[in-house]
Structures are given as structure tokens and as C-alpha cells.
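This part of the workshop introduces the protein records we will be handling. An example says more than a description, so a record of this kind follows:
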Amino acid sequence: MANLGYVFYNKPKSVIEATKDLSSYKQKKDEFSGTDGYRFFDALVTYPGLLVGIGYPGNGKDTDSIKNGFSFDYCTGLPYVPGSSIKGIIKKRIRDYSPAVIIWLENKNSEYLKDISPSNEKKKFNDLSESEQKEYKGKFTKKILNDLFEEKDSSGSRDVFLGAYISKDYEGKEILKPESITPHGNIFEQPNPLKHLRIAPDVMLRIGFIMKEEEIKGLSKDIREELYKTIILDLGIGAKTNHGYGHLIEVKKK
């Protein structure tokens, strides 16, 4: 089996064909199985695929080269989404969609919100005035990002984001697909297509976390896991999610 990361940067024209030669790749044993607090879910990439690592350098300057980089696991050479990227995505989504997260926690009857709401009458977020909602969003966003990702408790740790890895054997199938964008600098000139790669639709990924056993500031392990998973499944991961990339469908455990 070829290491796709090596092929991508050294023999770029062969990288798509190399994805078919995975005969020696077998789904590796889940190395975190049995680890305290380990949780995961499997999900299928939907059309048009998943973009990750496109901010990295590409593999050449000739017209046939792939202009954007890609994220490959150092050991296996297979495409993956780093845990740091998953964590960053969740933090950004909480910040950008804080009202939706507040309402989600309200529906879970979470005690986490009881000391944040600006209303003494315990009103729901949607029942607050515009000024109260603005105050609420600011306090909530600062608190939850600090509690989940910044402040360390006495154990000195927080939830660990393990990333997203291919979780199924794909012998003889392409797990990467080519893609092109055609920026128009001038409407009267022929566009110059820019090539990049995407994880193909219907590839299964395993997204894992190591959750702390105890609560974090009143947020239980189950609530935190469900929050992370909901954000990933509802809003996607990777680049260009607003254009349909990076969306996933959960594969229910049997």
C-alpha cells in the first residue's frame, strides 16, 4: 500500500489512482477502546465531500498540480481531520451560534444556565428583550468557552478531541476525489481552474473524544458529548461547509 501523504507531495498525478491500492490497509484496532471516558460515533461523508487541510501548501507549480494542500495522517498516510481542528470548529460554532446553543441547553433543562440569565424570572431566551438577549449571549459565550476549553480544574485536564479517521476498509475504491474551482479574475478572460482534493462521499469516519468522568461546571459528560456531536452533525466540519462540503450523516451503532 502506498502512503497517500507521500504520493501527494512526491507523485501528485498518481494520488487519485493510489487511493485504489489500499489492499494492505485494514481497519486498525481502535487503540482507545477501553480507555476511561472514551466516546465515539461513526458518520458518512455526504456529497460533494469533505475538504480538510486546504490551507497547507500544494504540491507543485505546474498547471496540472494540486494547488491546495491536504491533511494526511503521519503514520498511515490516510486523510484525516486533526483533533485540534475538531476542537477549533466546535469552539467557533459555539461562539457563532450561541443563541442556538443556549436554547439547546434550555431544552435539556440544564442547570448550567441558572446563574447566567439576566432575568430573575427565569425566562427562556426567546422571551427576553433584545438588550437582555445581547447581555445573555455575551455572558454565556465567555463562560462556556472558558469552562470547556480554557480554565483547568484541579485535575489539570479537559475533554480530549481525537480527530476523525477513516473507520472502514475501502479496498479498490477511491477515498479521495479531485475537485476544481474556477475563479474569474476578469469576465472576459478564460478562467484558470485550480485543482484540489476532497474526501469522497460515502467514506465513513470515526470521530472520537475522551470525556472526563466528572461534570465540568455543571455540564455532565453525556451533555457535553451530545453537544459536540450535535454541532458536528448539524453544521459540518472542514472547509467550505457553507457550500455543502463537510456534512455528515451519523451511522447508528448496532
Remarks:
- Residues 130-150 form the longest helix (21 residues).
- The first strand starts at residue 38 and ends at 45.
